[in-house]
Amino acid sequence: MLLNVIEDEEKWLAEGIASVQQNALFMHRALDANNLRDALKYSAQMLSELRTSKLSPHKYYELYMRAFDEMRKLEMFFKDESRHGVSVVDLYELVHHAGNILPRLYLLCTVGSVYMKTKEAPPKDVLKDLVEMCKGVQHPVRGLFLRSYLVQVSRDKLPDIGAEYERDRDESSVMDAIEFVLQNFVEMNKLWVRLHHQGPGQDRDKREKERSELRDLVGKNLHILGQLDGVDLEMYRENVLPRVLEQVVNCKDEPAQYYLMDCIIQVFPDEYHLQSLETLLAACPHLQPSVDVKTVLSQLMDRLSNYASTCPDVIPEFLQVEAFAKLSSAISKVIEAQVDMPIVGAITLYVSLLTFTLRVHPDRLDYVDQILGACVKKLAGKPRLEDKRATKQIVLLLSAPLEKYNDIVTALTLSNYPRVMDHLDNETIKVMAMVIIQTIMKNSTCISTADKVEVLFELIKGLIKDLDVTTADELDKEDFEEEQNSVARLINMLYNDDPEEMLQIIYTVRKHVMNGGPTRLPFTVPPLVFSALTLIRRLQAQDGDVVGEEVPTTPKAIFQLLNQTIETLAVVPSPELALRLFLQCAEAANDCELEPVAYEFFTQAYVLYEEEIADSKAQVTAIHLITGTLQRMQVFGVENRDTLTHKATGYSAKLLKKPDQCRAVYACSHLFWVDDQDGVKDGERVLLCLKRALRIANAAQQMANAARGSSGPVTLFVEILNKYLYFFEKGNPQITSNMIQDLVELITEEMQSDSVTADPASDAFFASTLRYIRFQKQKGGSMGEKFDSISV
Which UniProt keywords apply (predicted)? Predict the structure, then answer.
């Protein structure tokens, strides 16, 4: 069916074009012969083809353009009176006798254009005559093209300021031009709207498409008005805009109202919009409820904000006319008037208003907060948003201040900012929280007060605690880790030079992150602990305590807080991480010379090792951490140190694998010989540890031989040899050159044994050790003498 209609239209168009061309050919012959009578006859027959009702607007336009091109030639003929011998006045009367009204009016418009050019009659009278006579064609499509032709041929004859046809710089002549264009605009708009109501209901979609194709014909009138030099600001504000808006509102047609409001915004200067803002905005609430007012207002605000950006000198005018107040009021009225407006539409309006405000009045934070408050009011009493389009607009609304000010601190001063976020769904709250953190990272913003930290962590609460019952299995591991690492980096950026305020920040952060649950605490507790340890070292450097109004800022008080905080990790459970943090705190307590505190942290670490850490690899790592930290401790007295070192060596000897036992035991030898601490140089116990390590290494070789038929590499013996050399150099009297010599010979024999598995790495390690011994022997001096008795 549709295919048949298209084929019929093509056929009708082809027939119409053929007829136009044929009559145009006869008209050309008449023009060449200067035969006015035949020229009028064939031009009228050619124009009669435009009387068709069978063509769609698109096809009708093709036919119209063929006729239009021919009418330009006829107009040139009419201008040359010498060719046809008839005065333009008589010619104007003559074409009144054309048979059909449509050809007659096209000819009248053509002759009228020539008539105005001769200045034999006031343009005002001719224009008024033509625009009134065109009312004789009420068919929407034919009438629109006829009036479009009228505007086209009379455009350059309008009595505008500075134009050839202005009457002695008379203001009334400009009004004549305006009146003509406005009257033609009103009639064309009526024809355009009427097209909506013609034909059967089932063809409505087709008619709307056809209407859309014709809209530029109507808008051309407003474009001409915008180009008239005589339409100054006063004329526009007092005459043009009210008349146009009256027609827009009264037509009560949704497509027409939307298009014409858009035309007004686009064709007239920005300055005019600013100075007539109240009049333009007053029309918005009176538009049909289905009109997309949000887009209209958004385009208006975009134009005004661009105007302010390109011409900063005009910003005082924005304040003078109270542009923000008027736009805000208009948006409120539109939202109230259109009760069925979806929530996304209202939020889009607030986004546009906020964008306008940030570009025109960036210093007015009260305006920004007022917009956010209006959004909160609109969302009040409604369930959390689930409409993705609405949540996207809210994200834009909340992101705009961050992007403009590049400073989250500014956003934190906006009281309504967190209230808007409360209306987002949980996933969008997370997205917005990441945007906030990324802004802080990008600009290296320092949040320096506890109050601001409180507001900030309320904003990012979607990342630091569970807002719903989502299980850990439902979370995307990679995304979750990225979010938590971002929170950890944020915690590290919180800082204040004042220790008291910094402690308040730490307490505030702790209050929030402790609600994070077992999956989040391993990410958020470590940066909190290190932030507190940094504060402790600052206090230690100041050599004094700061007493605040609420919490005394002393290292001891902070250590108590840390103890409670890290204990939660053990419950989570995350014992390996908790053990590391206890050891970090013990080292900090050592720097503060707080022996009881340091001992308590070590005790906690030992309890975790005994009760919570069961994995053999984790135990090996933990033992080496404990040994390394304990070796650096200087605060312990003899009794406490002996207790802790005894425990550490005991744990080392009980590891599951013999190689692990061996390495942990010889590492413990460093606990009894510390270079920078005169009181801890117990050579005998160092030797005991090394001998014990040798026995374990030998046992490991025997077990390997029994289990696999080979003893395995001699790496452990080479490692122990290096420990012997270390303590021999450091002057441990219990380590003698004979012991080293015996160990070198033992390793050499083992490597030559058939039962030992060849290992290039072990061989290279042993060769490097022997080279080192030779180097020390050749060095000379006291060290050379010590090594001289070792034969390699």
Answer: Cytoplasm, Endosome, Golgi apparatus, Membrane, Protein transport, Transport
Q: How many domains does the chain have?
A: 4
Choose the final residue of a domain: 493, 521, 553.
553
Q: Helix 426-443 and helix 477-493: axis angle, to 10°?
A: 50
Position 575 in a domain: no
Residue-level pLDDT at 544 = 52
Does 284 lie in the same domain as 397?
Answer: yes
Q: Which tokens hold the place of 221? A: 């009138």
What DSSP letter does each residue of 691-719 carry, written as one string?
Answer: HHHHHHHHHHHHHHHHHHSS----HHHHH
Q: Is residue 179 part of a domain?
A: yes
- Cβ atoms of 423 and 416 within 8 Å: the answer is no
Q: Which of 243, 268, 293 is the last residue of a domain?
A: 268
State whether 238 and 280 are in the same domain: no
Q: The pTM is what?
A: 0.74
pLDDT value of residue 162:
59
Question: How wide is the angle at C-alpha 286 spanned by C-alphas 283 and 292, nearest 5°?
Answer: 90
Q: Beta-carbon neighbour count of residue 781 at 10 Å? A: 8
Domain membership flag for residue 608:
no
Neighbours of 184 (CB within 10 A): 23
Q: Are residues 65 and 131 in the same domain?
A: no
Indicate the burial class of 32 (C-beta count within 10 angstroms; 0-12, 13-18, 19 or more): exposed
Give 2's pLDDT tier (boundaries 50, 70, 90).
very low
Residue 581 pLDDT > 60: yes
Domain housing 410? 269-420
Most confident region among 371-380, 423-432, 454-463, 659-668 by mean pLDDT:
659-668
* Distance, CA of 356 to CA of 148 (rounded, Å): 37
Please give the radius of gyration of the chain, using alpha carbons only, rounded to the nearest integer. Answer: 46
Residue 69 shares a structural domain with residue 105: yes
d(CA 424, CA 352): 19
Q: What is the pLDDT of residue 679?
A: 62
| C-alpha span between 281 and 330 (Å, rounded) | 6
Share of the chain above pLDDT 90, in %: 44
Residues 269, 315: Cα–Cα separation, whole Å? 16
**Is residue 584 within 8 Å of 532, Cβ to Cβ?**
no
In Å, the largest CA–CA distance within the chain is 139
The reply to whether 617 falls in a domain is no
What average pLDDT does this structure show over 731-755? 88
Q: How confident is the model at residue 4 (pLDDT cuts 50, 70, 90)?
A: low
Decide: helix, strand or coil at residue 547: strand
Peptide bond into 552 cis (omega under 30): no
For residue 552, the SS3 value is strand
Q: What are the two backbone dihedrals, phi and then psi, of residue 370, each rounded to the nearest 5 degrees?
A: -65, -40
Query: Is 11 in the same domain as 34?
Result: yes
Q: Are residues 397 and 470 in the same domain?
A: no
Tens digits of per-residue pLDDT, 675-703?
775 667 889 999 999 999 999 999 988 88
Q: Are residues 495 and 539 located together in one domain of the fold? A: yes
User: 178 and 302 share a domain?
Assistant: no
**pLDDT band at 168, cuts 50/70/90?**
very low
Asked if 623 contacts 576 with a C-beta cutoff of 8 angstroms, the reply is no
